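USER:
Make up one protein:

ASSISTANT:
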Amino acid sequence: MNAVTPIGTQKPAARKNDGAVLTQRFVALAFCRADLLFELDGTQHIVFSAGTTTEIFGRSASELFGKPFTDLLNDADRQLVSDLLMASDKDARIDDIPVRIPLRGGTDCNAVISGYRVPDFNHNFFLAVKIQPRRTSQVAQRPGDRDPESGTLNQQAFTNVASDRIRAMSASGAATKMTLVKVNNLGEARMGMSEDAHNRMVGSIGAILNAQSVGGNTA
């Protein structure tokens, strides 16, 4: 039987490439959880990427270099992810943030993003992206989740979305709060308006509330 030498007791000659082996090992472990890996600088631009970038985006890692990371996401998810990255402090993580990613074929796929800042790399953000996980908490994608006039979430959808996003923001180190807004005399104002004017007013109120919410769509 051949004896197995513990790693910590290997001879120096056997460990001369330990640095390269350790790097390969960490990369292999990362891809056990992720399909794509990214490193972002302080402006959220890509300085490193690895994984199936060509198959998903139709662009190689070198072609993605220097591009804004949020450009790879569905328009509706860009503001939320950007807000989380900006709010995350040096010791915080973001965990399993659900997003949609446009594929090279024109459709979107579901994904989750996790990551954290690394002080030894200028506090750059290191992200792992998992495509089509088994479970994702999709944010109000069903037509019935939003009021057709105001564009705001219904009660059940808002409860789900708000709890998910407050949890995500808190985990990233950002301060979070929920604001309740009451519009007085809306019923009386409606009585003196045409249907078209009322729809424009309600739509404007909903647009303002959404614009001021986390991710631009959490009202």
